[in-house]
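Obj: model holo form, ligand = nickel (II) ion.
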Amino acid sequence: MALIPLVKAPDPRLKKVSEPIAVGDIDKTLRRFMDDMLETMYDANGIGLAAIQIGVLKRVTVIDLDPGGPNSKPLYIINPVIVASSTEESTYNEGCLSVPEYWDDVHRPARITVEYLDENAKKQRVEADGLFATCLQHEIDHINGFLFIDHLSKLRRSIALRKSAKAKRLDQD
Ligand code: NI
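Output (holo structure tokens):
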């Protein structure tokens, strides 16, 4: 496995729409790639990571809501689609490995149903609420070229981007 450098905002790649994975391409190579995504995510103390965050424009994300904890369960999620969402919303203080040093409240549907393919190309359907629903929506946003800060006011977004740009600069020094 390998750690891969994270793409951080502002970066035009984070605004691109990722490409679907063909069912025939769900193989050992993709599984290995997703294991690298997981390792990179764990190393950065994240609970979700989309492929574009390591510069790959594919509709792929990994999630583990309890890294290193008793409920740790890595999920390999390919071509996810939200097929239903509740009108009721919930608010969560979100952060993102691609927007360092910034957290803010984001309102999203409280419950969603998502269909996707797992690492064995098996179709899965999950009904999610709580942190899982938030995390799935955050990662599916990445796949569609959006960041959590795109849900905020223009002012808050510009503060977030300034902080992220500064953190990125310090990182490169
Ligand atoms: Ni993110």
